[in-house]
């Protein structure tokens, strides 16, 4: 599935790069093409992440937390770039008339209204999906402790580091304790 989306993105990425190379750098259409370029790159990254994540899951591996955060940031950027591209496309599509002026004002006002709501929603999602990771020495070896804090309980899952991007689930059972705090978070 991800390959079916990634291949057209790669082809459109190459086409956009060729078109940008032929255009002037001051042209407004060039800004639109650069937005499409970034949109294609982000879509390619999202598809690649999902494809690799599927194969990692099949082999009992997962990505480290910083890659998940990068994926979340790419998803947020994708949404904002789609809003920009839609606004620019609506502006270029309409002829110079009162309808175009009305629609451009309407789309700008909608973007101004939607963007803060999206930012707050994404911060809310990030707050509940971000799990801190700590490198700890427990059970006579170095492990990565991933702490999931809830409202009344917290859970610590242990992983073996494979490399700087991937970790493997260990046979050590998860620890669950009362309280909504990170027991590995030290005050310095």
TrEMBL record:
It comes from the Bacteria. Keywords: Membrane, Transmembrane, Transmembrane helix. The chain crosses the membrane at residues 31-52, 72-90, 102-128. This is Uncharacterized protein.
């Amino acid at each position: 599935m991800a390959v079916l989306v990634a291949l057209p993105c790669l082809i459109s990425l190459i086409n956009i790069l060729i078109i940008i190379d032929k255009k002037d750098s001051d042209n407004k259409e060039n800004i639109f093409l650069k937005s499409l370029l970034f949109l294609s790159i982000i879509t390619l990254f999202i598809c690649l992440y999902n494809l690799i994540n599927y194969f990692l899951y099949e082999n009992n591996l997962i990505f480290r937390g910083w890659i998940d955060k990068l994926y979340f940031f790419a998803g947020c950027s994708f949404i904002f770039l789609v809003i920009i591209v839609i606004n620019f496309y609506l502006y270029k599509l309409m002829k110079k008339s009162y309808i175009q002026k009305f629609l451009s004002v309407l789309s700008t006002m909608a973007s101004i209204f939607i963007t803060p709501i999206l930012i707050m929603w994404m911060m809310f999602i990030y707050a509940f999906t971000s799990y801190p990771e700590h490198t700890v020495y427990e059970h006579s070896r170095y492990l990565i402790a991933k702490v999931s804090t809830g409202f009344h309980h917290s859970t610590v899952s242990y992983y073996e580091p494979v490399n700087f991007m991937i970790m493997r689930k260990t046979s050590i059972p998860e620890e669950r304790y009362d309280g909504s705090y990170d027991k590995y978070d030290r005050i310095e």
